[in-house]
Amino acid sequence: MIPHSRPTLGAEEAAAAAETIMSGQIAQGQKVVKFEDNFASFLGLQRAVAVNSGTSALHLALLALGTKPGDEIIIPDYVCTALLNAVHYTGAIPVIADVGEADGNLDCRTALRLITPKTRAVIVPHMFGNPCTGISLFKERGVPVVEDCAQSVGAELSGCKVGTLGDLSIFSFYATKVITCGEGGMVASNRPELTATIADLCDYDNRDDYRPRYNYKMTDFQAAMGLVQLARLPDFIQRRREIAQRYDTGLQDLPLRRPGTQSDQQPIYFRYIVQLANPESLQNHLRNHEISAARPVFKPYQLLTETHDCPVSLRLWHESLSLPIYPLLQNAEVDRVIAIIRNYYQKDLHPFKNSSEKTLCNRLRTRQLS
Ligand SMILES: *Cc1c(COP(=O)(O)O)cnc(C)c1O
After folding, report:
1. 255-292, pLDDT tens digit by residue?
2. How far is the CA of 80 from the centre of ligand 1 (A)?
3. 30 and 120 share a domain?
4. Residue 348 pLDDT level (bands cut at 50, 70, 90)
5. Element housing 186 (H / E)
6. Ligand 1 mutation target, pool 60, 73, 127, 174, most atoms within 8 A of CB
7. What is the pLDDT of residues 223-262, one digit of tens each?
8. Which is the closest atom of ligand 1 to the Cα of 125?
9. How far apart, in whole angstroms, are the C-alpha atoms of residue 27 and residue 53?
10. Residue 4 within a domain
11. Is 61 close to ligand 1, i.e. is its CB under 6 Å away?
12. What does R_g of the chain's alpha carbons equal in angstroms?
């Protein structure tokens, strides 16, 4: 089976984790400090604070911006539920915005209409490894921006790294992400008052004063792995770009659409997404040939909460399929995925020939009209 995703871990990570375990210092210690320092210098930002997940990072970023119950936080519809969870943890109200047709990122221009006097912040994810454009539109309106770089560490917009464009940025080191230490996260910023609040909130012990704090700390053996992974990141990105190029060439004459990339966006291909009318049929065909493909977003919020409609998000969800892409994927495996997809089209298993798919489309259409 060719899995959809796989962490790139090896002897170096194992040795770093083992050394830390043998040292006896396994909770937060000097390795975490070093990981934070290296991460901040990688971004060229003043400070980074390590935490135990991307979700915790989002929660603390919102708290650092002063988010209180009843405030409004703008988030896109087409993303994992971590954002929705973090907003609810603070008691704030999620205000859900649609995404852009081109790349599935938040449509910043139309989201501006959702700003009210209660808007405390917007969370802008850079989805699938592709930088979101339009962050400056929020800054011009005085709305604080939390960049969610969980899928895009190392991607650049006009030569600027994602994570340096907003007020705060968050990262995730979950097993499927670009770099990993099993679970983990980071919050970074150039605003010392924000990172000081975050460092204060994520560690509850030995304090003179009391306020509710969290135990969101990273461990030293996770940080030891993270340090190795961060050093390998440039190689990881180069390999991801090579694989994407190989898919581009191998699939170019097929009737598959691809999310567009503008010249100022330098994506890192966390996901390689193809768009077609019937992704489930191609997904089944790949599965029958021992290849695992997945929807790049499990479900958009509108199908989970039924509180709003975001037509572009729904369409992208309905049409998108994510192919295997990760540094350990061999060229022969990429070629095999390409060959099986070409075989799918030769067999003329064309979009909309499958009747259950037709029914789903009709259901979606009715939903959009109602
Ligand atoms: C994975 C992910 C998160 C959450 O990170 P965890 O470490 O799993 O809590 C948040 N936002 C995006 C865009 C993600 O992909």
Report:
1. 999 987 888 999 999 999 999 999 999 999 999 999 99
2. 7
3. yes
4. low
5. strand 185-189
6. 174
7. 999 999 999 999 999 999 999 999 999 999 999 999 878 8
8. 13
9. 15
10. no
11. no
12. 21
